[in-house]
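REVIEWER CHECKLIST
Item 1: Sequence provided? yes
Item 2: Single chain? yes
Item 3: Sequence as submitted:
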Amino acid sequence: QVQLVESGGGLVQAGGSLRLSCAASGGTFRNYGMGWFRQSPGKERAFVAGISWSGIYTYCSDSVKGRFTISRDNAKNTVYLQMNSLKPEDTAVYYCAGRDSGSVRQLPSEYDYWGQGTQVTVSS
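Item 4: Structure as written out by the authors:
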């Protein structure tokens, strides 16, 4: 059974940085396409960034492009989300997700595995 565990969330001032990590176990991580999503109260879960199994292909949503970077270390079974120049509107619970296919997708329904989420709060 695949397990995804996020870490690295917290409280940060606007303009600051955080790095989220997602550690995978119980499966073949190197084969998975991975993504980060976020959800704030009253809103749907939204795609933030995705990375292919090899790490060659990455994609970020327009709202975070130029500020967030997704990467992965297949030797450590871990995917990262580096978040810079954080804004109050980035406040949300951030979820790590994996899919058996190695490609990047933006819809939550296209992911097979989910972490429990980590809270990111950006104060103004």
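Item 5: Key structural point noted by reviewer: The first strand starts at residue 3 and ends at 7.
Item 6: Recommendation: ____
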